[in-house]
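New to this. Please check this protein:
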Amino acid sequence: MKTHYGESRYLKAADVPQPLVATIQGVTRETVQQGQPPKDVVSFTELPKPLVLNDTNGITIQNLYSNESDNWLGRTIEVFATTTFFNGKQVACIRVRQPQVQQPVAQAAPMQQPAVPVPQPTQQHEAPVPPQPPIQAPPSDVPFDA
């Protein structure tokens, strides 16, 4: 991949104009900035640039999949641009989250018939059925096999 003057080799908010789902292809540890400790960098199957993980995004992926980055491979995350406050200013940033499952538009379910048919009177002049007496248990002094 060619890097032009001023162009970052890492993913930035301007590279993600709309949320997208990406498959994690690899995780490496790289020195991103001279004099700073190495950071985890995630590459994706669908994206030409990798993402440098900050604490927020790293913890999000850990919570989704595992503390072991080897378990992230082949998993998908949704990458999106948003803003955050940094040094007292609101700045663009990238965040990750669990991919949102696309649900089809819900359709009204057809009316279902009751599982047990409800008797309907066939004529207007039928008398209601009288209530039945409750079933009584046999006396306790009568053996069941008698």
User: Anything to note?
Assistant: The longest helix spans residues 55-64. The chain has one helix and five strands.
